[in-house]
Specification:
The chain is of the alpha/beta class. It has helices at about 15-20, 30-45, 65-75, 90-105, 120-125, 135-140, 145-150, 175-180, 190-200, 210-225, 245-260, 275-280, 295-305, 310-315, 350-360, 360-370, 385-390, 395-400, 410-420, 435-445, and strands spanning about 55-60, 80-85, 110-115, 155, 155-160, 160-165, 170-175, 205, 230, 240, 285-290, 315-320, 335-340.
Length: about 450
């Protein structure tokens, strides 16, 4: 599947983008946003003595960062509005279900939503997202990593506001890579890291469990091999053409099976999720893992708590995701959260003004350093506090520039679950036939001929 159409944003020099990012368009409620808030407040309240509107922001669970940003933006609004947060379930699919049920009932209490990018096309196609005004779309995509722009796009238009952008890195133990003779300043392949780990009796950790993380892994592999889960996209599910039964799909499956059946795979690889990978990487058998940036503050917190020796994170190194083929750049996973404005909100103009406050560089840097969630704004990666907290921030930014979103389609849930059913457990798949079988299953589901 080709990535979502890239949005045309005016070309700026690096200095110009940085100035714009830190100037009026990315300040806490800069001039344009203040004017918008003022006009909206007058029209919405008409001088009502009841006070300013309260915007409800439905958030995914975190370490308190979004609630703090809501407080900051309430203060920055200078009485124009206030923001209160409503906590969604921890599981992304449960978040989707709760929001869809409310929006299907035209719930006007949903002003702002923290949305997992794969679900954005479904919300947009269903008419659950308020259209992003052109001026807002231009400002919130200026100086933003391309993968985050792609993840906020559906049908050629920006339909959500980029907030924070996540990606997986190749984490390695410096001692293991050095002993294996791997130059980690250069790209490495999955074959190389498995061979290096096997040679020293160490582990390679990836997420082999039957969950969304398996789709994330497979998507990164097929994109890195030059293919896509969806070869030809369409709004009509019967016209979607899958790219699983292709050379790239077979190569991706080969890598999955190679890792899962190698001596470097952990004993519970078929149930291993991100937390389990991070735990394994803290142990004595650690060699390499693919995982999100949270593993770094997690390890430091364990050292502070006295449950992990400081020598462990001292041995951590971070590089760009492994390549599938030596001569093709990797396409790391892309994730994170983007902001949607509810289609039935009573205050859409105020809600969009709030998104511009939430996503300022100052707030993104705060969220990065305190909650470990990487920024979508490129300028944040130059912030000294960010570099001090995450020394590997430049690698994170490089990875986000290479990252490929998961399939962007209103039918993502059906496709993802179909992949999880077809490619699990990874050790048991037949790379030559699994693509055909997965295509048959998912195509039948999309045509409503089968149920998952």
């Amino acid at each position: 599947m080709p990535n979502a159409p890239r949005v045309g944003v005016r070309s700026r020099t690096a200095g110009g983008r940085r100035a714009a990012a830190r100037g009026r368009s990315r300040r806490l409620l800069g001039g344009a946003a203040v004017a918008l808030v003022g006009a909206s407040l007058l029209s919405a309240c008409g001088g009502d003595s009841a006070g300013p509107p309260t915007l409800t922001w439905y958030i995914n669970p975190d370490s308190g960062g979004q609630a703090e940003i809501a407080t900051r933006c309430t203060e920055a609004a200078n009485g124009a509005y206030s923001i209160e947060t409503a906590l969604l379930p921890r599981d992304a699919n449960a978040q989707r279900e709760q929001l869809i049920r409310r929006l299907a009932a035209n719930d006007d209490s949903i002003d702002l939503m923290s949305l997992d990018p794969p679900f954005i096309p479904e919300f947009a196609q269903a008419g659950f997202l308020a259209p992003v005004p052109d001026g807002v779309a231009g400002r919130v995509t200026e100086g933003v990593v391309q993968s985050s722009i792609d993840g906020s796009t559906w049908d050629g238009e920006i339909v959500a506001v980029p907030f924070w952008a996540n990606t997986q890195l190749l984490w390695y133990r410096k001692s293991v890579a050095e002993a294996a003779g791997l130059d980690m300043t250069q790209p490495v392949t999955w074959d190389q890291i498995v061979q290096a780990a096997e040679g020293q009796g160490k582990r390679v950790d990836a997420q082999g469990t039957r969950a969304e993380s398996l789709t994330v892994w497979f998507n990164a592999l097929i994109e890195s091999a030059g293919g896509s889960i969806i070869a030809e996209n369409a709004q009509d599910p019967k016209k979607i053409v899958l790219g699983l039964d292709t050379a790239a799909g077979e190569r991706a499956a080969e890598v999955m099976k190679m890792v899962a059946t190698s001596d470097a795979a952990g004993p519970a690889f078929s149930t291993e999720n991100e937390d389990a990978s991070a735990t394994g990487f803290e142990g004595p058998d650690a060699g390499f893992q693919v995982n999100y940036p949270f593993v770094w503050p997690r390890a430091l917190s364990a050292v502070e708590a006295g449950t992990l020796d400081a020598s462990v994170p001292d041995d951590y190194g971070a590089a760009v995701y492994p390549r599938v083929n030596a001569d093709e750049p990797a396409a790391p996973p892309y994730g994170g959260i983007n902001l949607g404005v509810g289609a039935f909100s009573k205050y859409p103009d105020l809600a969009f003004a709030a998104t511009e406050c939430i996503t300022t560089d100052e707030n993104q840097a705060y969220y990065f350093t305190t909650n470990g969630n990487p920024a979508s704004s490129k300028a944040v990666y130059d912030d000294p506090a960010v570099l001090e907290t995450f020394p590997m921030a430049p690698v994170i930014q490089e990875s986000l520039e290479l990252a490929a979103p998961r399939p962007q389609t209103p039918y993502y849930n059906e496709i993802s679950v179909g992949i999880q059913r077809s490619y699990h457990p990874p050790a048991s798949i037949n790379p030559q036939t699994v693509g055909e079988k997965a295509t048959e299953l998912i195509t039948a589901v999309l045509r409503k001929e089968r149920l998952l």
